[in-house]
Amino acid sequence: MKDTIVQGLQQAYLNLFHMIAEFLPRLVVMLVIILSGLLVAYALKYVVRAVLRLTKLDRLSEEAGASRVLRMAALPSMTEVLSRSVFWITLLGFILVGISILNIAGLQEQISRLLRLLPEIVVAMLILFLGLVIANFLSRAALLAAVNAGYASPKMASWSIRFGIWILAIAMALDELGVARQTVIAAFSIVFGAFMLGLAIAFGLGGQGLARSFLERSLGEKKDDKTNELQPL
Amino acid sequence: MAEDILLGDDFLRQLMSVGEVDLLVAIPTYNNAGTVAQAIQAIEDSYQQNFVRDRVVILNVDGGSTDHTTETILNMNGRKAGAHRGITSLRTVHRVTTQYGRTPSQGMALRTVLAAADLLRARSCAIVSPATTLDSSWIASLLRPAYRQDFAFVAPLYTRTKFQGLLARNLLYPMSRAVFGLRIREMYSDEWGFSGRLATQCLDQNLWGDEAVRARPEAWMAVTAICSGMKCCQSFLGPKAPPPAGSGPDIVETIRQTVGNLFWCFETFQDHWMDRTGTEAVPTFGSDHELTAEDAPASQEKSFELFRIAVKQLDDILSSILRPDTLSQIRKIAGVEAGKFRFEAELWVRTLYEFAASYHRTVIARDHILQALVPLYRGQLYSFLQEHRASSLEEMEADSEALCLEFERHKPYLIERWKAKN
Amino acid sequence: MALQDDNLWYKDAVIYQLHVRTFCDSDGNGIGDFRGLTNKLDYLQELGINAIWLLPFYPSPLRDDGYDISDYTSVNPTYGTIDDFKTFLAAAHSRRIRVITELVLNHTSDQHPWFQEARSSRENPKRDWYVWSDTDNKYHGVRIIFLDTEMSNWAWDPISKSYYWHRFFSHQPDLNFDNPAVREAMWDVMKFWCDIGVDGFRLDAVPYLVEREGTSCENLPETHGVIRELRKRLDSAYPGKMLLAEANQWPADVRDYFGNADEFHMAFHFPLMPRMFMAVKLEDRKPIIEILEQTPQIPDTCQWCIFLRNHDELTLEMVTDIERDYMYDAFANDKAMRINLGIRRRLAPMMENDRRRIELLNGLLLSMPGTPIIYYGDEIGMGDNIYLGDRNGVRTPMQWNGGWNAGFSSADPERLYSPLISNPVYGYQSINVDSQRRSEHSLLSWTKSVIQTRNSFQVFSRGSIEFLSPSNHRVLAYVRQLGEEKVLVVNNLSSSAQAVELNLQSYKGHIPIEMFGRNLFPRIGELPYLLTLAPYQFFWFRLRRI
């Protein structure tokens, strides 16, 4: 009996040793991949940062209003955000590749799913970013136009546009990621449709008189404005 | 070298027939069939009275009229009724017409004119508007300085009523004068003159893609002349007639075009104006500008309201453009009641210079910066009208000059803001 | 004996204008004469002209270059005798050259026996042959023609103690054409010369024949009556003779002098002449086109006479003030070049001796509708002398060669009636017939060739004219047509090369044949016909449809 136990233990330790011996090289490879990934990620980060600085992306982002949003979210500048994103995405990629070397069952599939998702994540981030920029630009344009035209609630117009474009951008990003696609499309249609319907009802039924006088005022005012305005040049 | 892409075969053929000219008067048109005939007649009268021996051409550049404006021009009979002995003018007066595009654009119209002037080696050119009731003496006043005395740019000078042209008087003139150093009153107008040499120089600068040039090219030509060291002058025309009520762009569009162009000029020519100090008068032909009396206009309370609302609603935007202390001063005066409201000159000057600097740095979209200026201008306009409703003409002129000096005094501030990083 | 063949000969004429005094001196007295002229007829025949217009050669005190006549039916002895004239006439006719002389109807010299009689007393039968008045207030406001020398149209006669009327110099009293005797006397003069064989008369100063109170005393209906009467008698007694009117008026006013083909056969087109110069200087066809547009149609048997220069100043009466100022600035900057209302210079100096411009103007002269007149010496590019007083600067001796007195006379140079042109540019040593005859490419040779080409085609003399209107105003283009004969004339009035597109659709299918070199040009098609011309170049194309 004693011999069996010793043999069994010896076998177990041998198996463990074999397992470790088998696992260690893969671990080393994984570490090497991750290490090189780290180096590549850093290099890419610096390259991207340098390129973005050359293209004055920060200024563009400032102009588009995206920088302000980033500041509000306590995030660094756009160049920094993008270059860091590139760093982390690259590193993540290498880590995923490294992990896949370990050959741990079940993990492979998840890793390849994650890898497949990466481009879509990037596109979704881009859609969100663009949506942010466009929303900011258009809402500011609307605000200025409404203020200069003397409309009663310029901020309402501005926020409506900003909100609308955000909704659209989020829906598009989620759609891109394939997250709860049906739900998102349905929700988007409902929200947007409801918003439009609400406006229509407000103007058409509940605010007939208001709508009428608003339109009359806005058209009439424009003419009056022009005839009353002094010749500037 | 002339731009040949924009010259269609038919236009080129017409230019070939004309040959070298001494004088070229151009009329940009767009659906002006009702008024263009009087303009053409005025030009022909001017040629016959003042330039009878010179080689001349009338050039119409049309932006795609649908009311047969060009046919109206071509079908006009040039000969004066009753002339039956001898000839009315020594030389053939050519009328050339061309369509430069499907939609009207001042810049593209001018580009076509400059190309023609270059090819025809015109010595002196003038641009006139078909909507203005032209006097033949105006044409001569615009052409002579470049033709006989080698001036490169000839700005018009008008008799204005008290409350006419306040954007020019309170913003465009004093600001451009302070920055570029020459006292040209009317850099933004529908009539001006220039030499063939300036035409060629402007044509060679390939800036036609820029919206600022396309909208108000005349000021760009003036600034080009100034910064190239060419001679500029002013020539008195007469009373500036107000446009028909309700016509023309609104104040937002006007500021977009004129102030946008001005700020763009600051940027494009920044190497030339930073070191300039002081201002010089330019030679003036004919009378000096004049102010004539006018009844006080209807109350502009609406302008003040728009100013007040804007200061509140555009706070975020204004804080991107203006410095905190300037903005807080504006907030303060926006809180004052209408009767006591005053937009002091110094504040106005600093505001404008900060806007210019922000435009240069593109803190937000440039068009938005210009639009944000509109309500502030409205405020300043209201303040001006309050102050000068009952002023005499002399008082108004003195105030105008004081404002100009204020702009000049604060030029170092503009330079400081221009160079600042934020 | 007169040439009889064609009553419309004047339409096909190329007239050479000269004064016998200036042309050739045969007897060594320093003044040209008829014998000398006769000796030079071969030259004129060679040149290709077929009519000579002789300036007045009658006895005269010569205070107005012979236009002050003291005897209508004789020859100034300085120029020869009546027999010399007849010999000259016969020699000219034998070379098929017609001769046109002057008939100064309007006035005589105050040395004329008629005037001597008329002034002798108020009762003299010839008193009424002139226009007299006790005061100088009559015909008030009538313009003075010789502005530089005359202060009034009336002159005081100390002998008969009254005023006499003179539209020209004060020594040229006007005849009174209200008097039938005067009309008869002038008809007798005409008959005298017609009987000798003269082919035509240039009637000097015709607008001024008759005066009426309250009028301009020019172009009056009564004047036309006088002319009609003369013409009727001439046609009846001497068919084929020609009357040429000197009426310096607007074309519309000259038109009346053609009447219904019952007054003058020809008249000078004065207003066209300065405009040809103007057009070349301005480099713009407008002056020519406009004056021709104002020129009315004339009867078929009538003809305009066109010219570049003549013995008088280049008149600027029939131009506007603007045009006159321009002409003065362009061609007579030196005030010494101006006289009365005109410019006393020759063609070549006005063209700054630019051969191309001289040729262009001659090309215009010989291709435009009308009978062309060539002033003597212009065919070799003679110069002028503006310091010779009056209009004498353009009346200097003809330059035949580079030798003694330019071959004009064997007399001492000091004896010549006028000094020769002797500067290095226009002097007789460089500008003369003999040296130009030696070269095929001289101005003389060129003129000969162009006259010959013109004479070969009647379309130039009798054809219609249709102006083309190319958009290039520096090109003057027109088509002459007579029956099926068509000639396209294209002139570049500019000092720089030009391109021109001509609308020749009506002549589609025709082949242009350049008339001097006889080379073919591309056939005329649907599209505008493109031509390029060198500075001041002109083309004559015969348009043939084959």
Question: Could you please describe the fold and organization of this structure?
Answer:
- The complex is a heterotrimer of chains A (233), B (422) and C (546).
- In chain A, 89% of the residues lie in helices and 0% in strands.
- Chain A has helices at residues 2-54, 57-64, 66-72, 78-102, 107-149, 154-177, 181-206, 208-228.
- In chain A, α1 (2-54) runs antiparallel to α4 (78-102) and α6 (154-177) runs antiparallel to α7 (181-206).
- Chain B is α/β, with parallel strands linked by helices.
- In chain B, α3 (69-75) links the parallel β2 (56-62) and β3.
- Chain B is globular.
- The model of chain B has no long low-confidence stretch (mean pLDDT 89).
- Chain C is α/β, with parallel strands linked by helices and 546 residues long.
- In chain C, the strands form five sheets. An eight-stranded parallel barrel of chain C has the order 1-2-3-7-8-9-10-14. Chain C has a five-stranded antiparallel beta sheet with strand order 15-16-17-21-19. Chain C has a three-stranded antiparallel beta sheet with strand order 4-6-5, with no helix packed on it.
- The longest helix of chain C is centred in the middle third of the chain and has 17 residues, at 180-196.
- The model of chain C has no long low-confidence stretch (mean pLDDT 94).
- The chains are: A mainly alpha (233), B alpha/beta (422), C alpha/beta (546).
- The interface between A and B is medium-sized, with 27 and 42 residues.
Describe what is shown at a glance.
Chain A contains 8 helices and no strands. Chain A is an all-alpha fold.
Task: Offer a few descriptive terms.
B: 422 residues; alpha/beta; Spore Coat Polysaccharide Biosynthesis Protein SpsA, Chain A; 2 domains; C: 546 residues; TIM Barrel; Oligo-1,6-glucosidase, domain 2; Immunoglobulin-like; five-stranded antiparallel beta sheet; 17% strand; globular
